[in-house]
Amino acid sequence: MTTALSHPTRSSTAAAGGGRIRVLVVDDHPAVRHGVAGLIEQQPDMTVIAIASNADDAPALDGSVDVAVLDYHLGARDGLWLTRRLKQLARPPRVLIYSAFADHTLAAAARIAGADGLLGKCALAEELPIVIRRLAAGRLNLPAVAAPVARALRSRLAARDQALFGMLLHGVDPAEVAATLAISDAELELRRAAILSTLSPPEETGRQAPPTGPLDYERPRRRRGCAAA
Length: 229
Fold this sequence. Notes:
By secondary structure, the chain is an alpha/beta fold. Helix content is 42%, strand content 13%.
């Protein structure tokens, strides 16, 4: 399901470059989806222009989204797949993976997919708007991937993809990666997709049961055992 939210005055101001940060929210859990959208709408410098419940229904909105806030688990296709789809637009948005499963593996996969940020859903509520502002300003919010973790993940890949993984993990521009490895942009995307397929956290491991208490963005402090952002 996709829902467009109409804010003509805000949108026209944002299009002029001096208005609110325009946000797309995609999450498959209804309460979280609308709760996150409501939290963003409370910010004086932000507006949600669309929400969606899965990756296939998420609108492309080329050039009209500043920051896309994506859950990782989105049904048949995940947030990393949607990240690649959005990043291939002519005017791609900044992308934040906002997940309850924000561990080192997802941090590495987010970097490979080209995401600009990763944040755990158990972060304090006020952290989400802060990170959205950071991404909208052109900065990154990606946790470091420890060298032992990077080596372990690299060892799971085909030999031909290990150098590609290392360069993307360290933020080398994809055009430079393609030139260095003497491959086309199309082949780069195919091999990137293969790496993500290997590294992406499995659904049965990453999926958590729906919350029975206050939602993450309503909690006054961090919960024990939450994945670190």
